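Shift notes (night). Ran Methionine aminopeptidase while the centrifuge was going.
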Amino acid sequence: MMRYNYTVIELKTPAEIDRMHVTGRFVAEILTEMGRLADVGVNLMDLEHHARAMIEERGAESCYWDYAPSFGRGPFRNVICLSVNDAVLHGLPHDYTLRDGDVVSADIAVTVDGWAADSARTVIVGTPAEEDLRIVRATEEALEAAIGAARPGNRIGDISAAIGAVAEAHGYPVNTEFGGHGIGRTMHEEIHIPNKGRPGRGLTLRPGLTLALEPWFARTTDKIVFDPDGWTIRSADGSRTAHSEHTVAITEDEPLVLTRRTSEPAPH
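Came back to this:
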């Protein structure tokens, strides 16, 4: 049985969550811009450089630049992950011009004054195919279900189960290798949050916990493969994918979404 030590998992004060919310609003601004700019004929590197300029102008710091986990080939030397079509996570920006119907997932994490926020959204360029709209909406629905389960007294397994239930309802398989995580002073803190799990299991949620929740699905597989670049993760069968993510704070009452975009539809 896994035990959790709250001396290792830092509970943030309301004032610290407020500071993370400042970062979260800025991350939301960047993703709003990415959605606005992603269009037929736009190069992925144009999006990367625009994100860099926004970060520099704000005086923020990228959590991705020089990020060097156990996977990946050398440090990541970009500020945003841009994953296209069958790519879903850690997409390395490169010289690629977007085409009509492309599905683009943009994922970004930054710190402002020492506090991090992380968020992702998936957009469809030009003319959307219905099956692509469906998987994007499924990840958004799963994210809202996860947020709804992020309440004090619930457990990590309740969040995972909420995501998995939405995937199952839509007929999408779920990969559990990569999922949500703790966040705060750094992009990745203690706690792994799989996108499938059993309710009532795992860490008990307490006010002050801050989590990045990120359901991602591939249309017809739960298996993944890595590109030769060592970073970009794709569906193993080439099926299209989608990814949605928000940074969320557990409070005494309702969960607080720190990266909600102003243009984002309110949850039903």
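Residues 155 and 200 are 6 Å apart (CA to CA). The chain has a mean pLDDT of 95.
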